[in-house]
Design a protein that fits this description.
about 150 residues; alpha+beta; Aminopeptidase; five-stranded mixed beta sheet; GNAT_dom; Acyl_CoA_acyltransferase; N-acetyltransferase
């Protein structure tokens, strides 16, 4: 990539740019529910964005107490910028937040091997309760349904 990528801690892009990036990434999120996307970011206290000019090419969303625990909710990278170090840089920016914060995340099935590659340790002692309200379709169905939106990213 010859374009300069700029990173912006505490920069929350607009909902439409987020929806398009999620659709392109593909990060199966409720892109068909813009209000829910807005509320997801409104409730997050860690948002780090990567841009090429005005174009959103990477996004990290999470929560932390800034002293002990942190959770990465989303790491979305535009396909044209994957393998360009954008994801690693966004994660590194998050790791700089707070002294002594232990970060955890729930990896998407298509990215599960990525985190070991960038130095994260796999954990086996987690638990979850299923999400209510919307469960994403298969990756193939998601991509087919949101191809027009992904093209806007």
């Amino acid at each position: 990539m010859t374009e300069a990528i700029t990173y912006h801690p505490d920069c929350c892009p607009g909902v439409e740019a987020i929806r398009a990036l999620y659709a392109a990434a593909p990060l199966r999120r409720p892109v068909h529910q813009p209000e829910r996307i807005r509320r997801m970011f409104e409730g997050s206290n860690v948002v780090i964005s990567a841009f090429v000019g005005e174009r959103l090419v990477g996004l990290l969303r999470g929560w932390t107490d800034f002293v002990y625990d942190g959770y990465i909710c989303d790491l979305a990278i535009h396909p044209a910028y994957q393998n360009a170090g954008v994801g690693r840089r966004l994660l590194d920016e998050a790791l700089r937040i707070g002294d002594g914060v232990q970060w955890v995340l729930l990896a998407s099935p298509i990215a599960k091997d990525y985190y070991a590659h960038v130095g994260w340790e796999k954990v086996e002692n987690g638990w979850k309760v299923a999400r209510g309200g919307w469960n994403p379709p298969s990756l193939e169905a998601f991509q087919a349904e949101h191809a027009d939106l992904a093209a806007k990213a």
